[in-house]
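>> received
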Amino acid sequence: MMRHALDIQHYTSTQTFAQEQQKLFGSLWLFAGFTSMVAQRNQFFTRQLTGIPVLVQRTAAGIRAFINQCPHRKSAIQTAPEGVRPLVCPYHAWTFGAEGELRSTPNPALYQFSDVEKSELCLDKLQIQLVGQFIFVNFSNEPLPLSEQFSEDYLAQLETVSGHLDSQIVYSCHRVRYNWKLNMENVKDYNHVPFIHPKTFLPLLKSPPATPPVALPSVVEQLRTAQPPRLSALSYFGRGTLNRPASWFAKGCETYGEGAFYYSWYLYPNVNFCSVQGEHFLLQQYDPVAPGETDYHLWMMTAKRKDIAADFTALLSGLIRGERRVIAEDTQVLEKMQTGFGGRSARVTHGDYESMLVAQHLWYRANVLGEAL
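>> returned
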């Protein structure tokens, strides 16, 4: 076993939090939602993404993403979490076009804007990429290629699995009192399952998700050479064997994969997308609010219904309640951990099965903290 590479202060420091906002969440592609959430013209959803109000809407030009603020007085363009409505600011009725350009202002004589000024009064448009049903946005004006963050093979896998996602989605969000990095580390740590989830998750598993199929050196070798991995190596796929029969609703769905498996796709920096036997899917996103606070977003859907008229509302409600029970078990431990972090907290120690966590932290140290390794 070796000493780990990331100081505990980086889970509590406001300075580190600011660096993450700029160099991590301000530059990487972030999951925003699913295309089924904006299926028709003018359909939209809004959300906070790393503390920034984001609007995703299908316009005449396709799916677009904007900062959800009018350039006039920064009022939200869309105030509801979701709906169908044109791009019109409710405060003073400024109207915007398909690409966020200003179309009209009622009572224009009150403003006296020149044509040049009008051309600059547009919504702040974000870079957007679609991978099947997954919507990713980027806050940078010159974002890195998506294939630099996720390998081409990985993107192809996400696109394939997204073809099995149903359009009926249940969603919840709750705030937890710990640093977002603890959650991303927790979902990659299969060894905690027997001790934290002995009655909820463990009985379902015949074997834990496989180690990442990427060529990572051992923990000892990583810390000896101190070479951060490629960014794309931090996102990977795992599969574990399940100890359960097919669910009653599976025959009515276009399920993913073959056999009784638990599938997990880890999307760096802050998403875990997984599936129970290809029958239903859930996506967890750990969205930072403060050094010791995180918004825990959870989306859940079944595999695509063969009969679109079938209503799975009650089923999804039961599934998400079950998932929230598992999450609550993790939350109790992680919040206690965060509370205990302080000046006497030494660096954590990792064993070899945690080589992915070490790789993740080495990349973080080099690219977020700017440390020489």
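>> The longest strand covers residues 280-290.
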